[in-house]
Amino acid sequence: MVSVAILGCAGYAGQETLDRVLAHPELEPVALGSDSLAGRPAAALDPRLDGALPPFTTNEGAAAAGADLLFLSLDGDEAAAFEPPSGAVVVDLSGAHRLADADLARAWYGTAPGAWSYGLPELYPPTGQLIANPGCYATAALLALGPLAGRIDNVVVDAKSGLSGAGKTLKQTSHAGFVLENLSPYAVGAHRHAPEIAQQLGVPVCFVPHLLPVRRGLLATCYVQTDADVRALLEDTYASSAVVRVLPAGVAPELARVQGTDAAELGIFADVSTGTTIVICALDNLGKGAAGQAVQNANLALGLDETSGLRLHGVLV
Amino acid sequence: MVSVAILGCAGYAGQETLDRVLAHPELEPVALGSDSLAGRPAAALDPRLDGALPPFTTNEGAAAAGADLLFLSLDGDEAAAFEPPSGAVVVDLSGAHRLADADLARAWYGTAPGAWSYGLPELYPPTGQLIANPGCYATAALLALGPLAGRIDNVVVDAKSGLSGAGKTLKQTSHAGFVLENLSPYAVGAHRHAPEIAQQLGVPVCFVPHLLPVRRGLLATCYVQTDADVRALLEDTYASSAVVRVLPAGVAPELARVQGTDAAELGIFADVSTGTTIVICALDNLGKGAAGQAVQNANLALGLDETSGLRLHGVLV
Amino acid sequence: MVSVAILGCAGYAGQETLDRVLAHPELEPVALGSDSLAGRPAAALDPRLDGALPPFTTNEGAAAAGADLLFLSLDGDEAAAFEPPSGAVVVDLSGAHRLADADLARAWYGTAPGAWSYGLPELYPPTGQLIANPGCYATAALLALGPLAGRIDNVVVDAKSGLSGAGKTLKQTSHAGFVLENLSPYAVGAHRHAPEIAQQLGVPVCFVPHLLPVRRGLLATCYVQTDADVRALLEDTYASSAVVRVLPAGVAPELARVQGTDAAELGIFADVSTGTTIVICALDNLGKGAAGQAVQNANLALGLDETSGLRLHGVLV
Amino acid sequence: MVSVAILGCAGYAGQETLDRVLAHPELEPVALGSDSLAGRPAAALDPRLDGALPPFTTNEGAAAAGADLLFLSLDGDEAAAFEPPSGAVVVDLSGAHRLADADLARAWYGTAPGAWSYGLPELYPPTGQLIANPGCYATAALLALGPLAGRIDNVVVDAKSGLSGAGKTLKQTSHAGFVLENLSPYAVGAHRHAPEIAQQLGVPVCFVPHLLPVRRGLLATCYVQTDADVRALLEDTYASSAVVRVLPAGVAPELARVQGTDAAELGIFADVSTGTTIVICALDNLGKGAAGQAVQNANLALGLDETSGLRLHGVLV
Q: Is B260 on the interface with C (CB under 8 A)?
């Protein structure tokens, strides 16, 4: 068994990572880090968690527990300051280590690029033991457009995310009185996932995210000019994937089929009047957009079955 | 007093039109048409409607009631077949008379262009007595981009609408089990509001609508390339409008502030990395997107105060 | 014109009170109090508020503005400590002055009963210049059961409220990640509106509130044993009311028809198998449950038309 | 392997049953019945279903497929008319065979009681091969109150259900324009789950259901007078259950923790002022309230592990 520590386990992505670890036949949680819950039993986070789990410890304590595998579900600042223990596989779910360009990394996260590899398994498999897990929006845009890199222009990504993408911290824009029955664009033209998408695609990207009044799920509608055979490229890229499904012509992705799962759906459309290709990706921001991909990256780094522990089955309505 | 007949009064747009007519000091409802409710009292539609209103009659009966002003809240087919009574002002809320090009009108609605004027008061004031009321999506896109016509290129309109935009008819995609906690793109690259927007802008438009899990409200995120001073043009266009509000720099429109009203909000943003201008419009699909605009058009055609009967005041949270 | 000061104007109930004051032909807002927004323009709260309004001042400043009418939309503690200016009408929207029993007032609010009258206009019209505005849950339960006081037993009130009832303060149970797609009972058997309801009914009440995933609206399902002719009593009580509507037999109240309004709906049902009478009340927690009722109380205290400024018309879908 | 046929597989409960069957190590789906989808591939219902499954057949065809185990997810009328194949285990998810009293069965379902056992595993384990699966509301009320049978009086069950409890059929009250941002009581004092609950408890029950604006999940707030030690009785009853969890004192059930699962949560509270005991149950109407319980019943009838195929693990936020 591979021993696992989760730092920041009480946040959304942390709890979801724990969910996958508990379902994984070869991972064993040995340390649950949370500075706010340190000393309390696992059930303090959620009554579904029972006494077989260790009580919460501090994030520092969890880091020092000697685990083989660490998941960092921390703020970017905390993740940037984290010193990886020698020999361990570390998957960082924050944005601290995603940008390879020194200027961009400093501008958006106040960090310096290091020895971390960017891990999006279907397109950019992780290398080494230090893995930067992609952002939720970036994952959706890249699954849609990554296979077209070098052959696209005029990229617009209009994305819509459920509330859990904003994290558990209390703030006005996460207050239910603001979110319910509302739709609000935010960080228009100024979101830090834009340079992350552009870094992988090699072209600038106009990116606008919107906050949806739903708990989970993310949909990115991507508009490009291209002369590539988009369907052929995407079907070829994901032909053997158990995670990414290219839908038949005429079928659009929707949140309902990916919520609570680690799967992603892609739909491909053409606008004849303008010659625009539209690729739409739906995924769960906490699944393929965070915890599911983190465990998938860990599986690859450890040589385990790529989809062990992932939520990929079921046809809930 | 101007006598009013509403055909299709039991649908969403019909009931909302009645709402404005009841609030209007110079309009008096004399005939409520509904083939399904004919013969029943007004309260059969909604217990808030009292006995002072006439009972429902058939749409044919309402058309023949001799009203000075008729609102058609019918299917496109029914509206296309409707014979306007001589001398009356008629506002058609369907799409039957929106497209001026004969081929487009036939292709999208199976109708022929006639003597109807397209009435979007702030940009294209109605002329004559027969008025085609714009589509909800088209209204939002045109309020955002109409003042830039002739100076924009590469137009992408990514729109999101509440459920009531789909009407009261029972269909799988309006079933709450499909809508709740979901987001679904539909008619991707093939929605009939696209040629309507293109007709007014003079350029082709890539248009993708999405169905939101909210009852009311519509938000259109519009992406263009332009060298115009967008803020100056929009602020100038709407400077004296009581309906359309251009928000200060940095403030984004949101559904919550326009739901239940006949107002619209515009926000203007720039994406530096791609040189894209982003104009976002929020409105209520049943308000400025349908009934509010219909009454506004009728006010203009009848020489009444443009905003009489409209819902423009209030700061509900 | 009657000059008005609103203390706590930046909260939900404060903003809604301002909404009614702005619509009122005889009230004029002269001071908007908010300790967090003091010094900023009205538009800082909401871009729909324009420059004709005075900028925000502190709550202390608003209290000292010499207004004829003050609305207190403050925490209970702040309202309890508030010294009413001599000669002014004061409507307190908090719970500080609702309980007449000294022990109960101390136990639930840490306050002492004073010279405040409990004002629920249809049942307990306010007297004097200091008025305690009822709680939202209490208003619903009392509209349903007040006319039956003295003739009911075994009272169960199962209530469900939209999120805005919990206020704008940031807390975990108001975070959208907790509220969305959820339903949660809270303060089970221990909510401070229970003694308020019991005080007016004269019998103990088993009261359980639940938090709904909607922004506005409250529904109370009330179960009692009684031998009274409930329909006759309720129809008689509300026969001349423009605010409370007793629905016909077989029609149930629902949130959608009262949201955004100051009206209330009552439905009356019998359970034959147990001999239970079920009275259901729907209202908007921010309307009849707070700001609408506050303005209604103020109108009565000032000798104005009881429903001036209220939102009672319209048939929005 | 046990061969399985699902009749009515295209409805919500049918698809959810298929979800559990696909996850079950000892069940193999051999026939998917749906009169509307007959002849089409499984993916016509949901693109997540792949080609390894047989195409849809008619319900008659599925019944005749010779399966060892049949799930009936049909209307009550169809289920009542169904002739069970000899030797097969049949679990009926409709209400046709739930009421043992001939008059009640005829009055509520137009059926006659037969040789079917009522199967709610934790309280009333099924016997024989023909099993009537309890209603969703009845399951929640009985999990809360069944262990108290014979010791309770004045039973009020106030229940709230997500939309999927109403089924996939198109009707006005399932239209999203009616459901979104609304809450509506229905069948007040006249719902057919009331006699089902009363039958098992041995006392009459006042039952009122409400429709919530959520896709999944059901919460029943049950009010009783009793002198039993409720916590001791419930904790004892469910001590060894992997499905039903009695929450610690002070913790209330909520929908979010049971959605998408086959688990149920119980919370126990006291109202001191009236001496009322409040037991609250949360479950997923499609899980423990339908498909999960159906598979659980089938497991018991076939001598398999009681929880095989059920969704009981995971801590999704």
A: yes
* Mean pLDDT on D279-298: 98
From B99's Cα to the closest Cα of chain A, the distance in A is: 16
Cα separation of the two ends of chain D: 35
Asked if D12 is an interface residue toward chain B (Cβ–Cβ < 8 A), one would say yes
* Burial track D209-239 (b if 16+ CB lie within 10 A, e otherwise): bbbbbbbbbbbbbbbbebeeebbebbeebbe
Q: In sequence order, what DSSP letters do the residues of B48-75 get, joined into one string?
A: TS-TTSPPEE-HHHHHTT--SEEEE-S-
Distance from CA of C70 to the nearest CA of B (A): 19
The pLDDT tens digits for B127-147 are 999 999 999 999 999 999 999
**Would residue A206 show up in a list of annotated catalytic residues for this protein?**
no
Residue C98: predicted pLDDT: 96
User: Can you tell me whether residue D109 is helix, strand or coil?
Assistant: helix
Radius of gyration of chain D (CA): 19
Other chains touching D, judged by 3 or more CB pairs under 8 Å: A, B, C
Looking at chain B, which residue has its C-alpha nearest residue C242?
Answer: B48
Whether B51 has a pLDDT exceeding 80, the answer reads: no
- pLDDT of A51: 73
Nearest CA among B184, D221, D213 for reference residue C215: D213
Query: B46 to chain C nearest CA, in Å?
Result: 8
Strand B264-271 vs strand B276-283: parallel, antiparallel, or unpaired? antiparallel
pLDDT band, very low/low/confident/very high, at C52 (cuts 50, 70, 90): confident
Q: pLDDT tens for residues C79-126?
A: 999 999 999 999 999 999 999 998 888 888 888 877 899 999 999 999
Look at the block and give the residue holding tokens 């929605």. B191
D272 contacts in C (CB within 8 Å)? 189
* CB within 8 Å: D315 and A19: yes
Contact A286 D317 (CB under 8 A): yes
Residues A242-254 have pLDDT tens digits of 999 999 999 999 9
- Subunit contact D182:C212, Cβ cutoff 8 A: no
- pTM check: above 0.95: yes
B window 146-165, beta carbon within 8 A of D: 162-164
Beta-strand pair D152-161/D218-226 = antiparallel
D258 contact C CB<8A: no
Interface predicted TM-score (ipTM) over 0.95:
yes
What would the two tokens of residue A291 be? 């915890």
D contact test, residue of C173, C203, C273 with most D CBs within 10 A: C273
Residue C51 CB: number of other CB atoms within 10 A? 9
Please give the C-alpha separations between residue A81 and each of A84, A94, A112, B62, in angstroms, as whole numbers: 10, 12, 10, 73
pLDDT of residue A179: 97
Residue C134 has pLDDT above 80, yes or no: yes
Whether B62 and B42 have beta carbons less than 8 Å apart is answered as no
